[in-house]
Amino acid sequence: MLDRITDKFSEITREFSGKNRISEKNIEDAVNEIKVTLLDADVNLRVVRRFVNKTIKEASGEDVLKSINPGQMFIKIVYDKMVSLLGDSRQELELKGPDTVSVILLLGLQGAGKTTAAAKLAKRLQSEGRTPLMAACDLIRPAAVEQLSVLGEQIGIEVYKEDTKNAVKVARNALKYAKKKQYDTLIIDTAGRLQIDQDMMKEIIAVRDAVNPVEALLVADAMTGQNAVEIAETFDKEVSLTGVILTKFDSDARGGAALSLKSITGKPIKFIGVGEKVEDLEPFYPERIASRILGMGDVVSLVEKAQENATQEEAEELEKKIISATFTLEDYLLQFQKMRKMGSIQSLVSMIPGMAGKIGDGDIDEKAIKREEAIILSMTLQERRNHRIVGPPRKKRIAAGSGTSVAEVNRLIKKFDKMRLMMKKIAKNKKLQSQFMAQMGGM
Q1: By C-alpha distance, which of 298, 294, 297 is closest to 14?
Q2: 289 and 314: one domain?
Q3: pTM score over 0.90
Q4: Does residue 95 form part of some domain?
Q5: CATH number of the domain encompassing residue 364
């Protein structure tokens, strides 16, 4: 989502990094570039003015200009202001203990992704040890109840629904049902409209009053830019929001919503939707997003994603295989599958320090990766574990089974041999490891 703004901020970061001398003119020019970049990203004008004024005031002081490393001091100031803009720190959900039902009310316009967000949030809370129930209270949009029911079945979470058009009744009865069945969390999916109107607001207020939620979260579409801020202000005035879930954060939106919401509304972004799968809901960490924007990467999130998909024992076993050159095509296939669970390759690359903006969508051939995966899947288990036995007849069979050519099978095997040799050398040589990481963006 933040590719365009990250490209520009990365340039500014590289320009100032390591500078032993900067002037007020340098700072003024850089801040003007930042101003243009933020406005181009559809950031609210009031937010841009505050950001620029505070940055210039703090960066023009003698403590910066006469410091040992003024370039890095300036970058630190920009980073701190960016974190403040995004919300200072991670804001957790304010949930009650397991003996009481915590009600989470999801609000928003039609098309923002409330129903999907309800399932994603339920899945995340379930993984954290809570027992959620979802309530289908969007009785306006056709098939909304059915959509939530299908999602609930997919993730193994019950959905409370009734054959009625009275959303308040459904919400009230869902809360009674949650208490009776000893659920500790009730997530209510409410109805939206294409635009804000009084009927929608009256219904939402009535539902809120009926269930007394601990969280009233606005589900906003990141692609709506500054409009998301206006929508948040209106909902907050009527319902008193406690936070925001920003959907489609993985889209090509310019970033204006994420960078404006907290400053204008005072309400924190609590989660971001980063994909279409039910697992693709992440906590919002202002400091990590600020780091990504400035091209510094996000190693913490990258490590967390890796830990979710591989244990310490698996990592150690993989390292042993690499060092001993026993890493096989079966292991290679397994890494493909684990990476896919972690997200798109582009999103993972953006988390590596120094790599933001250096690799575009056109530089990553997803189709070629899928072809390689198809080739390996067309091999027998014996062939995956020992690719040396793959001679001409087997290559012909594998090519036919994967819808590729013998030349592509040959290319994959040669590439795998070279990669395995390189990985073995790097694993055994600390100097090569340093050189490799330097090539990966100065990590």
Answers
A1: 294
A2: no
A3: no
A4: no
A5: 1.10.260.30
Name the one residue in this structure whose structure tokens are 């930042």.
Answer: 34
Domain C-terminal end among 236, 259, 293: 293
Can you give the chain as a three-state secondary structure string? CCHHHHHHHHHHHHHHCCCCCCCHHHHHHHHHHHHHHHHHCCCCHHHHHHHHHHHHHHHCCHHHHCCCCHHHHHHHHHHHHHHHHHCCCCCCCCCCCCCCCEEEEEECCCCCCHHHHHHHHHHHHHHCCCCEEEEEECCCCCCHHHHHHHHHHHHCCCEECCCCCCHHHHHHHHHHHHHHCCCCEEEEEECCCCCCCHHHHHHHHHHHHHHCCCEEEEEEEHHHCHHHHHHHHHHHHHHCCCEEEEECCCCCCCCHHHHHHHHHHCCCEEEEECCCCCCCEEECCHHHHHHHHCCCCCHHHHHHHHHHHCCHHHHHHHHHHHHCCCCCHHHHHHHHHHHHHHCCHHHHHCCCCCCCCCCCHHHCCHHHHHHHHHHHHCCCHHHHHCHHHCCHHHHHHHHHHHCCCHHHHHHHHHHHHHHHHHHHHHHHCHHHHHHHHHHCCCC
Within a domain: residue 73? yes
pLDDT, tens digit (0-9, with 9 covering 90-100), for 134-147: 999 999 888 999 99
What's the pLDDT score for residue 258? 82
The tens digit of pLDDT for each residue in 204-230 reads 999 999 999 999 999 998 888 778 888
Indicate if the pLDDT at residue 91 is higher than 60.
Answer: yes
Assess whether 115 and 254 both reside in one domain: yes
Residue 70: give its domain's CATH number. Answer: 1.20.120.140
What is the total count of domains within the chain? 3
The answer to whether residues 304 and 426 belong to one domain is: yes
Same domain for 237 and 368: no
Do residues 216 and 107 both lie within one domain?
yes
